[in-house]
Specification:
Number of strands: 9
Strand content: 15-25%
CATH superfamily of the largest domain: Spore Coat Polysaccharide Biosynthesis Protein SpsA, Chain A
Shape: globular
Helix content: 40-55%
Oligomer: single chain
Length: about 325
């Protein structure tokens, strides 16, 4: 699918890989936001039953339907899209990876492509991902706060990022078997190979989390804990210490502190319950970090509460990973929607 003449000068060597599973209207917005703006688009579908593949084909998008006999992962889907993109006629040098529940904001593709061309040492750039409907639930609001991170040199990017083809090939792409945390894991390897990642002060995508229940939030936090444990297991050695701190925090605040505080209450005549005072201290740190980003007191307080509470499902994810590892069970996706 050719880019329009107006985009040709800047985006003639830019392709896009979109991944999705039953995203419905969200996918339609996503593909339309890319349509005619890049040299080629590949959509990778992970077993949708809502006609996603048919819609994409109707737009003239190249579609890859993943083999359902193998476990679905976002990493596997992105790799498959990248491989298919390499067979397209366009000589692609930069790839915009996008999750199917996101819409690419006007102007981002040009700015990202230009930044990568201006800085040959950059492997990837990402920008501001915003939640489309933060007012619909506290969980959507939490996503919006979570993505409001500092600009400049970054240790990692998320699922939406423009990546240099040469750098991506240099490290072998994503780890297919990771069920979560595949983006920071890739970035660890990119930085280890001498590349850099940058977060630009530029609007990039609008995301539709569609997260409206506590159960969905809990599953998402469990997935994070699983990613922490697996990331630390794979790349936790010095000097990177990937996800080691996050895993230890989940173990400490999700398990060790409540067990010691409650389990030791009787023999210590209640003194052990003083350990629980660590939770408001931890929450205060989270509150301060969000306030420093310029967010209001209400949003900072909301984030602090859920950041502290989130250590419980994160612990669940850590335990699930290690249980699967000991029992040699195949990892299964932890989906929250």
């Amino acid at each position: 699918m050719a880019a329009s003449s107006g985009d040709a000068a800047n985006l003639k060597n830019v392709g896009a890989v979109v991944i999705g599973r039953n995203e419905g209207e969200r996918l339609q917005r996503c593909l339309r936001s890319l349509h005619g703006k890049v040299a080629s688009i590949v959509y990778v579908d992970s077993g949708s039953t809502d006609g996603s593949s048919a819609f994409a084909r109707g737009l003239g998008v190249t579609v890859v339907d993943l083999d359902a006999t193998k476990p679905f992962t976002a990493a596997r889907a992105r790799n498959a899209g990248f491989q298919r993109l390499a067979t397209e006629p366009a000589d692609v040098e930069l790839v915009q990876f996008v999750d199917g529940d996101c819409e690419v904001v006007d102007g981002w593709l040009h700015s990202a492509a230009q930044r990568l061309r201006d800085a040959p040492g950059l492997a990837a750039v990402c920008g501001r991902r915003r939640e489309r409907f933060p007012e619909r639930s506290v969980y959507n609001r939490l996503c919006d706060i979570e993505w409001d991170t500092p600009v400049g040199d970054a240790r990692a990017c998320g699922g939406d990022a423009m990546i240099r083809v040469r750098a991506f090939r240099d490290v072998g792409g994503y780890a297919d078997d990771l069920i979560a945390g595949e983006e920071p894991e890739l970035c660890v390897r990119l930085r280890g190979a001498g590349w850099k990642i940058e977060r630009m002060d530029h609007e990039m995508t609008l995301h539709d989390a569609a997260m409206t229940t506590f159960e969905q939030w809990w599953r998402r936090a469990t997935r994070s804990g699983y990613a922490y444990a697996e990331g630390a297991s794979r790349l936790g050695r010095p000097p990177e210490r990937h996800f080691v701190r996050e895993t230890r925090r989940a173990l400490l605040w999700g398990g060790i502190v409540p067990v010691l505080a409650i389990g030791g209450a009787v023999p210590s005549l209640g003194a052990s319950t003083l350990l629980l005072l660590g939770y408001p201290v931890s929450g205060a740190r989270a509150y301060s970090s969000i306030r420093r980003r310029g967010r209001g007191a209400g949003e900072a307080a909301l984030y602090a509460v859920f950041c502290t509470l989130g250590k419980l499902p994160e612990l669940q994810g850590v335990v699930r990973y290690h249980r699967n590892r000991v029992l040699r069970r195949r990892s299964q996706l932890i989906e929250y929607k």
